[in-house]
Write a structure and sequence with these properties.
alpha/beta, D-Maltodextrin-Binding Protein, domain 2, 2 domains, 5-stranded mixed β-sheet, 3-stranded antiparallel β-sheet, globular
Length: 322
């Protein structure tokens, strides 16, 4: 834990900067997405590319490089010249979780990257099948103490896996993890009655809730989700063990380490304008992301805080990289 804290501190310290060109950007910008097309990170990246490109006066080209828990795409950016023309769009788990699961690969890449901005944060909905007869988190805890239960997630080290393992550790219940290669598999497993519960994307479960197939019991973050009106956050439940529960995640825009402060400030200014646009906000609403834009200072603080919060969960649960 202490070693990784020192690692984060070293990662977030300013390194030697590449001088900003007189006019930036001077050519099209590559925005590498380290996940597959059509997923939430990709959709958000393409929305940012459209709006930021207009403001910057250059095309922002989104390029998908999935694989190895996001490390393949991250490596492309880590090896790039830090002149602001190659950036990364990633889930924050690249920095907050992967160093514990893929130590060698992560250590080869992560020290060469730095957070540029938070492109939105989100929580997950603790969801069950309606037929389970569970209406509240309290009901689920009682049910789990007298029945074996399983939960689904998008894979080992995914937000759903992390959130449920944290939930297990705090409440003392037992539940078997059934990982899938993505969120659709996790949701389909719940639809098919193969598992009993899961921390799942609010926007993804909303249609099934409206259809009466799912019931959302609580939101994992500290903020209510507009997609699920009436669903409380964990801290509102009145359950002592869960009063401080939080499992929140973020999308990050990242740069090769050593990018100049001038270019970082340019992106702060540009993304602040992007996020102030009602049209842009509407374009990402389907992802369940409502949080306002946060610049590079807040992004660095987020990474440090979240990395520390997941270390104990990963170790206690024995979560391993696939």
């Amino acid at each position: 834990m202490i070693k990784f804290s020192l690692f984060c501190t070293a990662l977030l310290m300013a390194g030697a900067s590449v001088a900003a060109p007189a006019e930036y950007p001077t050519r099209p910008i590559r925005l590498i997405v380290n996940s597959a097309p059509a997923g939430p990170v990709d959709i958000c990246a393409r929305a940012i590319a459209t709006y930021a490109g207009k403001l910057l006066g250059q095309t922002v080209i989104v390029e998908n490089r999935p694989g190895a828990a996001g490390i393949i795409g991250a490596k492309v950016v880590a090896k790039s010249v830090p002149d602001g023309h190659t950036l990364l769009m990633t889930l924050d788990t690249l920095l907050t979780v992967n160093p514990y699961l893929y130590k060698r690969l992560a250590n080869d890449v992560i020290p060469h990257l730095e957070p540029l901005s938070i492109a939105g944060s989100f929580g997950l909905a603790l969801t069950v099948r309606s037929e389970l007869g569970v209406d509240t988190v309290h009901d689920l805890l009682r049910y789990a103490r007298s029945h074996p239960i399983t939960y689904s997630s998008a894979g080992y080290g995914s937000p759903g896996n992390l959130a449920f393992e944290k939930f297990k550790q705090i409440t003392g219940i037992d539940a078997t993890h059934v990982p899938f290669g993505g969120s659709p598999g996790a949701i389909n497993a719940l639809l098919g009655d193969q598992i009993q519960a899961g921390f799942l994307s609010a926007s993804a479960v909303q249609p099934h809730i409206k259809a009466g197939k799912f019931r959302a019991l609580a939101i994992s973050s500290r903020e209510l989700d507009p997609d699920l009106p009436g669903v409380p956050v964990m801290a509102q439940l009145g359950l002592e063990p869960l009063k401080d529960f939080e499992a929140a995640f973020a999308f990050l825009v990242m740069a090769p380490r050593g990018m100049s402060r001038d270019i970082a400030a340019k992106w702060d200014e540009t993304l602040a304008q992007v996020y102030a646009s009602p049209e842009f906000q509407a374009s990402i609403a389907s992802l369940g992301m409502r949080a306002p834009f946060s610049g590079h200072a807040v992004a660095k603080e987020w990474v440090q805080t979240q990395a520390g919060s997941w270390a104990e969960v990963i170790e206690s649960a024995g979560i391993k990289g696939e």
